[in-house]
């Protein structure tokens, strides 16, 4: 069974519990804290993957990390459970799956926007408003600055990409001239 399928099974159960407790966002924050710690600490990954430390030591370490991060009790319990099931290295995939499923449940569309220069607050609000109207959902913007697009923007909502960059338009013109 693929690791993503395993991660999704755990996350579905966690999301149901978080929804019943009305803690969807809080649990997500806790998962962010532990997944970020895993991503930035190779020694922690090695510790979880290794066979030298006991399972109890791994559970305690993960519990301490979650407590230091101020994670919600439900998130702490989940991380200890996942660690006990020897799935601690899947926490990053679980975090991503959790946010994707939670956003869907909360009616939030996560939109990746690439722009040539950083957006100010007003531009960001206007863009969010237009995207909310277009999608019919609340929008969470992830803005990336890439001067190589020259101008305009590239938006990605789910699997739909709209490339309105100046670089794309210039490439289209160049291609039409070359093709004749």
Explain how this protein is built.
The structure is a single chain. With 180 residues, this protein is of the alpha+beta class. It is built from eight helices and four strands. Strands 2-1-3-4 form a four-stranded mixed beta sheet. α1 (3-20) packs antiparallel against α5 (73-84), α1 packs across α6 and α2 (24-40) crosses α5 (73-84). The longest helix has 18 residues, at 3-20. The chain is elongated and about 70 Å long.
Shape: elongated
Please give the number of β-strands: 4
Q: If you consult CATH, what is the topology of the largest domain? A: Peroxidase, domain 1
CATH class term of the largest domain: Mainly Alpha
Question: Distance N terminus to C terminus?
Answer: 51 Å
Features of the shown structure:
single chain, 180 residues, alpha+beta, Peroxidase, domain 1, Glutaredoxin, 2 domains, four-stranded mixed β-sheet, 8 helices, 4 strands, elongated
């Amino acid at each position: 069974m693929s690791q993503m399928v395993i991660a999704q099974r755990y996350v579905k159960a966690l999301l149901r519990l978080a929804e019943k407790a009305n803690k969807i966002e809080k649990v997500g924050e806790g998962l962010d804290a532990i997944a970020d710690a895993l991503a930035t600490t190779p020694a922690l990954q090695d510790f979880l993957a290794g066979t030298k430390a006991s399972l109890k030591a791994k559970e305690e370490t993960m519990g301490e990390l979650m407590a230091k991060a101020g994670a919600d009790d439900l998130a702490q319990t989940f991380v200890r459970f996942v660690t006990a099931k020897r799935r601690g290295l899947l926490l990053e995939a679980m975090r991503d799956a959790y946010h994707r499923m939670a956003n869907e449940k909360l009616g939030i569309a996560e939109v990746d926007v690439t722009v040539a220069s950083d957006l100010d607050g007003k531009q960001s609000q206007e863009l969010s408003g237009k995207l909310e109207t277009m999608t019919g959902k609340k929008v969470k913007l992830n803005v990336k600055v890439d001067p190589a697009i020259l101008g305009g923007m590239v938006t990605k909502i789910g699997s739909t990409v709209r490339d309105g960059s100046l670089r794309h338009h210039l490439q289209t013109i160049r291609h039409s001239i070359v093709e004749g």
